[in-house]
Amino acid sequence: xxxxxxxxxxxxxxxxxxxxxxxxxxxxxxxxxGAVGETFGEAVFSTxxxxxQETLTDPSYDRQIVVATAPQIGNTGWNxxxxxxxxIWVSGYVxxxxxxxxxxxxxxxxxxxxxxxxxxxxxxxIDTRALTRHLRERGAMRAGIFSGETIAADSELLARVQxxxxxxxxxxxxxxxxxxxxxVPAIGEKRFTVAAIDLGIxxxxxxxxxxxxxxxxxxxxxxxxxxVYAVNPDGVFFSNGPGDPATADGPVALMSAVLxxxxxxxxxxxxxxxxxxxxGFGTYKLKYGHRGINQPVQDRTTGKxxxxxxxxxxxxxxxxxxxxxxxxxxxxxxxxxxxxxVVEGLQLLDQPAFSVQYHPEAAAGPHDAxxxxxxxxxxxxGQRA
Length: 385
Hints:
alpha/beta; single chain; seven-stranded mixed beta barrel; globular; eleven-stranded mixed beta sheet; 20 strands
């Protein structure tokens, strides 16, 4: 799925017309927001009331046009501390009522200015409730945002949208991952070393581990087993990331090599889907996915219900009602979404490996799932003992 943007820094951009076109022909007209031009991606909605900066800089949103369901966006502006990566990854941004003036003591500029600065085409002033209901009923779909000179006849815009590739079958994790390994040092006394495979990792994730005395070696998505074990890890972590997990044969092979050595393993989001594939389960595309910071998940190992942060359009197809036999031993579904019974976590019963489909680092909150990093520490402690 390709993205094309043409940014402009003129304050008159806010008065320019813009149009959002969905692949089924549904059209929404509003005003330009951020950069002016055209952009394409998969239209999805996020239900978070806060945390738009973390959302926009999450690499898992690569090549997606994100619709904010909260009606007013931009109140806290944009700061230089809350980015989850070095850039905005969303293809486009859709809001109903952009804040006229940001108000926060940490704000350095407005959200509109930052979108413009990074060349991200957006649209404002549309009925995002109607758009969200449409996507929920019809499913996430290809879309385009057009503003300024890129606006043409509706039929021509629809043809441009329908010419874009689908998200299903898209291999995106390598284009968002680091190209060079780097280290996030432990905070305080170093207790463990973890090799983290970057499939689209968010900045807060290694920080959460560093807070627990873990030195994190972040490695490219293309890392080999030899490169992973060259850092002498006590554990291996597989991160979140974008795209279809069915395309991720390389990470699946790497995870299988880690499982064969029985090294403590933890995966989140895309990493959960990789574990599912390594165990022999399939994956599938959800109709509209889970995106937001208010998704209820039950930890079936404790019975506890957590409010969690999500960003995924694919899921693991594993049985909820039984323990499965795999080539790496017995496995079971450890977490489940209470909205729709989607698999939200897996764990092996015969070796130290588990994963969840959501984001326990949750920089914008909630923090109900932060204990999962402690669970990873416990696995490494147990292996060392």
